[in-house]
């Protein structure tokens, strides 16, 4: 019920590991442990461990290095600190300008860590006119009335869709 795509057998195995009381239910810290296990991503763990220090946190310098090397961003330590202040969940780590693995995950899953350039999400054309006044490029199959192999074609198909 957590809306996470995972194999049922694998999820049951993880659930059993977390169910310390063996009563078929998980409570409190067990839920947190289960969530962390089921959402664990090996590639993120690997990259985090490559940059974290012995205390398993990213320092400001290491986060800046990650952003430059892996994300190929031309940023400074000030920008990295802004990311920590915005995405780090642990207040103590945040106050020391450190990023935990949970904060790192929050950053990577945020628009700031997204591979998609947010500038491309903006509409740069005049879109105030009725839809029928715009040229709409459509698939070459739009003219088909039924299936692609045997169905008839017609201009009416454009009108219907």
Automatic annotation (TrEMBL):
* Gene3D superfamilies found in the cross-reference section: EF-hand, Phosphatidylinositol (PI) phosphodiesterase
Provide one Gene Ontology biological process annotation. intracellular signal transduction
Molecular function via GO: calcium ion binding; phosphatidylinositol-4,5-bisphosphate phospholipase C activity
Q: Show the Pfam families listed in the entry.
A: EF-hand_like, PI-PLC-X
**Record-annotated EF-hand domain positions:** 6-41
Key word Ribosomal protein present: no
Q: Supply the InterPro entries for this chain.
A: EF-hand-dom_pair (IPR011992), EF_hand_dom (IPR002048), PI-PLC_fam (IPR001192), PLC-like_Pdiesterase_TIM-brl (IPR017946), PLC_EF-hand-like (IPR015359), PLipase_C_PInositol-sp_X_dom (IPR000909)
Q: Which UniProt keywords apply?
A: Cytoplasm, Transducer
Q: What does UniProt give as GO cellular component?
A: cytoplasm; plasma membrane
Primary subcellular site in the record, as a coarse category = cytoplasm
Q: Which reactions are catalysed by this chain?
A: a 1,2-diacyl-sn-glycero-3-phospho-(1D-myo-inositol-4,5-bisphosphate) + H2O = 1D-myo-inositol 1,4,5-trisphosphate + a 1,2-diacyl-sn-glycerol + H(+)
Where would one find the signal peptide in this protein?
none
> Which residue ranges run through the membrane?
none
Q: Where in the cell is it found?
A: Cytoplasm
Q: Which PANTHER family match?
A: PHOSPHOINOSITIDE PHOSPHOLIPASE C, PHOSPHOINOSITIDE-SPECIFIC PHOSPHOLIPASE C FAMILY PROTEIN
- Return the protein name: EF-hand domain-containing protein
Question: Which species is the source of this protein?
Answer: Scyliorhinus torazame
